[in-house]
Every structure is written in C-alpha cells, then in structure tokens.
C-alpha cells in the first residue's frame, strides 16, 4: 500500500534538508510513497504545526521542527 508523505515547510534550508532525506530514504529502500511538499502557510496551519519543517505520513504528524536522520525516517515508514 502506498504511503502519502507530506513535508510541511515554507522552503527554508531545514525544509529542503528534510525533503532530501525523505526522497533519499524512499528511493534507496524502494518504498511505495507519494511525496508532496506543502509550502502554503494556510495549509500548514491546518495541521496545527507552529514549527517547520514537519513530516506528515498518512495524515499523522511524525516529526516537527527538526530534520531527522535517514534511519529515523525509514523506521517511521516501515
């Protein structure tokens, strides 16, 4: 079953780092996932997230305000 991954962030360096980490993990592990960047502040507010970047997997906020390691992202996706 495909996972839906959303990266909430306005395009800051941390947001870009998080996007890179997630894309690497998905491609390196052949994970079936859709990655969507959410940069619209109104959309981000709907998730009640005050600190970006945030990682949302299947509509569950898993990480906020920091860039996780590849291992951490992989564990969240498995």
From TrEMBL:
Annotated keywords:
Disulfide bond, Redox-active center
Question: What S-S linkages are listed for this chain?
Answer: 12-15
Catalytic-site annotation from UniProt: 12, 15
**SUPFAM superfamilies (alphabetical):** Thioredoxin-like
Give the residues annotated as coiled coil.
Answer: none
Q: Which domain of life is it from?
A: Bacteria
Write down the InterPro entries for this protein, in alphabetical order.
Thioredoxin-like_fold (IPR012336), Thioredoxin-like_sf (IPR036249), THIRX-like_proc (IPR005243)
Ranges for domain Thioredoxin-like fold? 4-77
* Pfam families attached to this UniProt entry: Thioredoxin_3
Q: What is this protein called?
A: Thioredoxin-like protein
Its lineage opens with: Bacteria, Pseudomonadati, Bacteroidota, Flavobacteriia, Flavobacteriales
């Amino acid at each position: 079953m495909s996972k839906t991954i959303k990266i909430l962030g306005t395009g800051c360096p941390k947001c870009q780092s998080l996007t890179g980490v997630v894309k690497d993990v998905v491609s390196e592990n052949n994970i079936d996932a859709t990655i969507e960047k959410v940069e619209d502040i109104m959309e981000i507010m709907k998730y009640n997230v005050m600190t970006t970047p945030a990682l949302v997997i299947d509509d569950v906020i898993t990480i906020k305000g920091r860039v996780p390691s590849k291992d951490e992202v992989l564990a969240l996706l498995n």
